[in-house]
Hints:
alpha/beta, about 550 residues, binds zinc ion, globular
Amino acid sequence: MTFRRASLVFALCAVIGGSLAAQRRSSTPPQESTPTPPGPPRVEQLKREAMADVESMRVMTQQMVDQVFSYGELGFQEVETSKYLTGVLEKNGFKIERAFAGIPTAWSATWGSGKPVIALGSDIDGIPQASQKPGVGYRDPFIEGAPGHGEGHNSGVPLNITAALAVKKIMEREHLPGTLKLWPGVAEELVGAKAYFIRAGLFRDVDVSIFAHVANNFGANWGGGTGTGLESVEYTFKGESAHAAAQPWRGRSALDAVELMDVGWNFRREHLRLQQRSHYVIVNGGDQPNVVPPNAAVWYYFRETDYAHIKELREIGDTIAKAAAMMTNTEVSSRILGSAWPQHMNKTLAETMYANMATVGLPTWDEADQTLAKALQKELKQPQTGLATKIEPLRGGLDPEQNMGGPSDDIGDVSWNLPTVTLRYPANIPGTPGHNWANAIAMATPIAHKGVTAGAKVQAMTIIDMLMRPELVQQAWDYFRNVQTKDQKYVPFISDTDQPAVWMNEKILQQYRPDMKKMYFDPTKYKTYLEQLGIKYPTVRQ
Ligand SMILES: [Zn+2]
């Protein structure tokens, strides 16, 4: 029986930071971890210059954040987004490689020469049905049913671009060797691309990988012990159609097989490890009731906390699928639509980044920002704490045995290939559910604009640390080689012949793009997207 794999839900990137995870693990205190001490005076001086330069680019940063927000494209369909971002980079002297790894919306943008090579990545895709007007503290879509940035992935590559431009200026003036390589997290919500980027060699000569992900506070962590990895698999059943009333005995229902698989899985769920998280959507349930469905498909995410358990969960899924096919006299095939390793971030990189966060500090929120945040929190029946005013502690060295699961991001795969760290930056409102219209509200407002500028400062400073303090790069590799990968090596979930699921979300964009196009941000006419939309900031319930 052949098994392929498959299709649609939300991959999770975690906006939820560490407080929950930290509480859960109160029985195993984290290992000692301290921010990296400052470097030589010249390094610290250049970092201060980079901070000032990022600040001076805040209008450009805001435009990029607003522009990508207005595109709101789903995974593998980030056509306008990638065209725009590569355009900005090309104009600034970066060499672009398009359609990277056979993915039309993927690219890499390189500038500089020699070592070290520093990769800067961030996700770019949106969330289904998350269309939402920014700056409005309640549900108010632009286009009912259309996708939108209900995760905040419009902000990360703009952040990296601003940081890279500030560093590039300094590298040119100071004649510093090194290469900057920007790349987009295409289809992160489908955990659909990063394993293919690795296979195609995106990180082959890279020394340090610095990632950025939107959050509602500054944060960095290292080690494993949080979240999950996953395999995303589509099971397709094939039966035989028949007149559902005249001759139902001649039909073999593929939908029956899907339903039996789901029932079987939900019974089995009781006897799985508590760490597992699994969920599915039926992507094809037949055409109309009087035709026995000859084809049906269900799409599963199998999440667990380590590689071996993810494989095991997938195998259970395969077995249940086969059993459902036997029960219904149908055939089943499967295909992998995405995958992610559980994340393991680098200790040295996290400690260095954290020191820079402490220097930059959280943005200064004004009354309008706090009013919007509290209004949304009230709307969502969450504590009305407003925006973050204190940086999360540096976290690391959690006990993997204590990991109770959670979301995933395929940056996990990258983190098992070279020293990697994720910058979590304060561009969103605490208390939002994630993968939801509410997570889009702040993402083209001063909250996101300030948070991205603050994040770009940290990013630029961390890049300078890596360019000018080779001992830190060495230390990062020591941890990667001698601690992280001592007993566990990377084995991709994808095979040599699996291909990225680039057709996904095509139909949704075909349906909504004509209306979405009318809403694209035009910075030649308006300063901000809020201005273009005529939205008073903030708009909240009275
Ligand atoms: Zn994300």
